[in-house]
Amino acid sequence: MDREKAKAAAERLVKQMTVEEMASQLRYDAPAIPRLGIPEYNWWNEALHGVANAGTATVFPQAVSLAAVFDADEISGIADIIATEGRAKYNAISQLDDRDIFKGLTYWSPNINIFRDPRWGRGQETYGEDPYLTSRLGVAFVRGLQGNGKYLKAAACAKHFAVHSGPETLRHEFNAEVSPKDLRETYLPAFEALVREAGVEAVMGAYNRVNGEPACGSKTLMEDILRGEWGFEGHFVSDCWAIRDFHEHHKVTSTAPESAALALRHGCDLNCGNTYLQLLIALKEGLIDEGMLRNATVRLFTTRCLLGLFDDSCELHFISPLESDSDTHAARALRIARKSMVLLKNDGVLPLRLENIRTVAVIGPVADSHAVLEGNYNGTSSRYTTFLEGIRHALAGRARVLYAEGAKLNQDRGSVLSKYANDRLQEAVAAAQAADVTLLCVGLDGTLEGEEGERGNTYFSGDREDILLPPSQRLLAEAMRQHAKKLVTVITSGSALDVREGNAILWAGYPGQAGGTALADLLLGVVSPSGKLPVTFYRSEDTLPEFTDYSMKNRTYRYHEAQALYPFGYGLSYAVFSYRDARFEQGHVSVSVCNDKGPDAEEVVQVYVKAQSPFAPLNPRLAGFKRVALRAGEEQQAMVPIDPDMFTVINEEGFREQTSATILFVGGSQPDTRSAELLGSSPLRLEVSRQLP
Q1: The dihedral of CA 517, 523, 529, 532: what is its sign?
Q2: pTM recorded for the entire structure
Q3: CA 99 to chain centre
Q4: Choosing from 117, 182, 213, 239, which is the catalytic residue?
Q5: Among 557, 588, 586, 587, which Cα is nearest to 673's?
Q6: CATH number of the domain that 460 lies in?
Q7: Are strands 400-404 and 621-630 parallel, antiparallel or unpaired?
Q8: pLDDT of res. 690
Q9: Catalytic: which of 449, 454, 521, 603?
Q10: Active site residue 182
Q11: Res 199: pLDDT
């Protein structure tokens, strides 16, 4: 059903509603209207990396780990699986008249905010720090989730619009001040791409103000840019209880009816929260008119019509529960987990050679954890494999596996009865001393970084003070450095951590239900690591601006002035790749890539652009990427699509300017000195000019 037909059907329905009925439909928990045959509907659902909060579902790697794959096709395929499982659940339980929260087909995903600061706990929900990577993966996710059939398979939502990335403690009252250049160059491109290219059905506003206007009631963002400039036709939803913040925290209004009116007037159709219970009062007080209620209701019912919810013959209604949590979906979760992990350091200890190994010690508080597989905004898998389980299964009959927790995640002792701190440490030391190889599993989970209110965080905020491991784990890592014969360190986190202990270091992110199997496959050389960092791993947070500073100066790889510990786009392989014959033609870069040495492996070809303009970012920016699979000794010609805006820059006033020349860098990393040092090679350089009219 195209949008015009869906809108016409919605208008026919809404025309029959009373004012009270229309107002009731603008809540996330919209009640039934029996006389019109309209069932109740709960709009609140999540599908960031699998159907969330609704029972059993395939749990894929967290969003930031998916970003490390640098593969839009993989993201689209995963989103299609998520939509299938969501439909399977909806079809089964709606027939049983279960229409509760987390059980609809409107998913408040993806989160396409820019991960500008590693201290932000919710950065794990994003596709990293780069606007181009975020836009390509976000577009792919939306297309995969919504499908291309007669009806939407599910409705995606781009969030949080806009200029939103912490601090969590201040989000209900904070005013994000952003320059026109940073707004258009960094914070808006992904949203524009999802609206213009992917036809995303919904957009969610943020909690904070942006240059003084509350994001869920901003004329600039919602009217002028989103609907006016970009032509967005879907529905707009507030973040949860964000409209209440207008009068309680932002103080831009005085009463709840005024807040409801401000949001509705500027185009917020759906309220996650309860402030829209005041809409009839706002109407009575003359703050809104009936036409505003009608327009919002029509937009919401247009979405429901596009989902086929009023067509009993919609083919999507027949997707069976048997299509959820299937073996095929589990195999996809394993495949993507293998590709998402990033090898940061390797002095030759990996892959492990078992002919010289009799005993392996698996140490650490995240070694046998389900939480580190999940990240946040997750479903519940029926088939988790922890790191310990994956290693134990892979080494069964081949080597003895010892296990010691070594430390608690963020506490200094295992029991309140323990007289001394670090009471788990000596068991780990003994295991490491007895083992030929020690696998140290340290890091964070969703209780230490996440959304506001995570209880494990020092400030109950979800954010972090620094990029170090918790003290208990730092002590464990130092002990393993001293006592392990060979040390392989595995880091779990959704953000940068400063961890340097180990002969080899692997960032596992939050790898989903198959994380343990994927880790074992990588460590034993069943597959070669191929992930690339979607964020910068800084040497210290001391080089960064204040967390509340939304200027991009000295932030992310595009503007950071200091050398990174591990740069954006970096990741090692067991293979050695070489590049030659790079050419730019018709919007693509073609380049020959060869797997010169090592096993069959996948490589992410990356293209960075440096425009010849004073308005260009400080460092070359990502403008294209493509994942290629190469057998040992194989050479391929890779064709990498390039950002059409490669010959443009954003000036200080926020306007796009054409440039006549640019430099392209083509290879397996950024063209920075640190990546060259770590990889032992640098990208090819290609100068390209363009005739301006």
Answers
A1: positive
A2: 0.97
A3: 27
A4: 239
A5: 557
A6: 3.40.50.1700
A7: unpaired
A8: 81
A9: 449
A10: no
A11: 98
**What span, in angstroms and rounded, lies between the C-alpha atoms of 513 and 218?**
40
Cα–Cα distance, 557 to 567 (Å, whole number): 7
Please report the pLDDT score of residue 475 as a whole number: 98
CA atoms within 13 A of residue 576's CA, in its CB half-sphere:
7
Distances (CA, A) of 529 to 51, 392, 478: 27, 20, 26
The pLDDT score that the predictor gives to residue 1 is 81
DSSP 8-state assignment for residue 436: S
How far apart CA 671 and CA 609 sit, in angstroms, is 10
From the number of C-beta atoms within 10 Å of its C-beta (0-12, 13-18, 19+), residue 241 rates as middle
For residue 435, the Cα-to-chain-centroid distance in whole angstroms is: 37
Rounded Cα distance, 594 and 59, in Å: 34
Task: Using a pLDDT cut of 70, give the percent of the chain over it.
Answer: 98
Where helices occur in 405-454 by DSSP H, the ranges are 425-434
Domain of residue 368: give its range.
Answer: 334-559
Q: Compute the CA torsion angle 495, 496, 499, 500 (nearest 10 deg).
A: 140
Looking at the DSSP bridge assignments, the partners of residue 637 are 592
Is residue 553 located within the same domain as residue 628?
A: no
**Same domain (yes/no): 73, 173:** yes
Contact between 658 and 648 under an 8 Å Cβ cutoff? The reply is yes
Q: Are residues 539 and 672 both part of a single domain?
A: no
> pLDDT for 384-407, tens place per residue?
999 999 999 999 999 999 999 999
In this prediction, residue 451 carries a pLDDT of: 92
Tokens matching residue 514: 């198959």
Contact 168, 448 (CB under 8 A): no
Residue 606 is given by DSSP the state E
Whether residue 567 lies inside any domain: the answer is no
Residues of the chain with pLDDT under 50: 454-460
46 catalytically annotated = no
Q: Which residues lie closer than 8 Å to 684 by C-beta, 6 or more apart?
A: 579, 580, 582, 591, 665, 666, 667
Shared domain for 53 and 31, answered yes or no, is yes
Is 307 within the bounds of a domain?
Answer: yes
Q: What is the DSSP string of 657-686?
A: EE-SEEEEEEESS-SSHHHHHHHS---EEE
**DSSP per-residue codes, 619-663:** S-EEEEEEEEEE-TT-EEEEEEE--GGGGEEE-TTS-EEE-SEEE
pLDDT at 455: 43
Angstrom distance (rounded) from CA 144 to CA 432 = 45
> Which residue, 444, 513, 558, 463, is CA-closest to 123?
463
C-alpha–C-alpha distance, residues 10 and 303, integer Å: 9
In a domain, 129, yes or no: yes
CATH of residue 236 = 3.20.20.300
Beta bridge partners of 28: none
Contact 227, 267 (CB under 8 A): yes
